[in-house]
From TrEMBL:
It comes from the Bacteria. It catalyses: ATP + protein L-histidine = ADP + protein N-phospho-L-histidine. Signal peptide: none annotated. This is histidine kinase. The keyword Transmembrane does not apply. The keyword Kinase applies. Keywords: ATP-binding, Kinase, Nucleotide-binding, Phosphoprotein, Transferase, Two-component regulatory system. Coiled coil: none annotated. The lineage of its organism: Bacteria, Pseudomonadati, Thermodesulfobacteriota, Desulfobacteria, Desulfobacterales. The modification 4-aspartylphosphate is found at residue 56. Its EC number is 2.7.13.3.
Length: 214
């Protein structure tokens, strides 16, 4: 189970369902936000971005499919994993759910352990994707600054070759060269770390959802 307890938005027009789900998730340590219709849900995510959304389909005025589509259209909310939690069991409903952008589809009545397993899995996957994005960005930045440092190092070495050691400028250039070399070592280490993390560690953390929920 993921150590960080995330904030989850539950969207359901049935108060009893909200109460049952809220109790299950709170007992596990999650922070809960509730909405009784699609409009409330879209307003809620503007105030607090949840890390996962449990979304009913059959709701008045705006059904769950439309809510999910609107969430996926917004840059602020499109990465939030959405799990449909509904009594609709027709194959077309399940297909439409995934087409709308959901990451999972759980049918009511649900098994509490299975639901929690799927919630934990999708939250962990979301955090893994975010971490991978940060690492890739760090690696790209290191790559970008490596070339300017190489240029500075090259010019400093060229100048040192043409200046006598007893010249006052020589010592300053030598210090510049030493500091640039230290910076290059740091960026190279960081690039190696990010490459290892994104291709090795993170790859090993990909979870089979079907196995995790059994």
């Amino acid at each position: 189970m993921y150590e960080h307890k995330a904030t989850i938005l539950i969207v359901d027009d049935n108060p009893k369902n909200l109460q049952v789900l809220g109790t299950i998730l709170k007992q596990t340590g999650y922070q809960i936000i509730v909405a009784q219709n699609g409009f409330q849900a879209l307003k809620a995510v503007k105030k607090i971005l949840p890390e996962l959304i449990l979304l009913d389909i059959m709701m008045p005025e705006m059904d769950g499919f439309d809510v999910c589509k609107k969430l996926k259209e917004s840059p602020e909310t499109q990465e939030i994993p959405v799990i449909f939690l509904t009594a609709k069991t027709e194959p077309d409903d399940i297909i439409n759910g995934f087409k709308a952008g959901a990451v999972d589809y759980v049918v009511k009545p649900f098994n509490s352990s299975e639901l929690l397993s799927r919630v934990n899995t999708h939250i962990e996957l979301a955090h893994t994707r975010k971490l991978q994005g940060v690492l890739e960005m760090a690696g790209a930045v290191c790559h970008e600054i490596n070339q300017p440092m190489q240029t500075i190092l090259g010019y400093s070495e060229l100048l040192l070759m043409n200046i006598k050691p007893d010249d006052k400028v020589y010592e300053k250039l030598q210090k510049i060269k030493e500091q640039i070399e230290k910076m290059r070592q740091i960026t190279r280490k960081l690039m190696r770390i990010t490459k290892y993390e994104t291709k090795g560690y993170l790859k090993g953390r990909i979870i089979d959802i079907d196995k995790a929920s059994t």
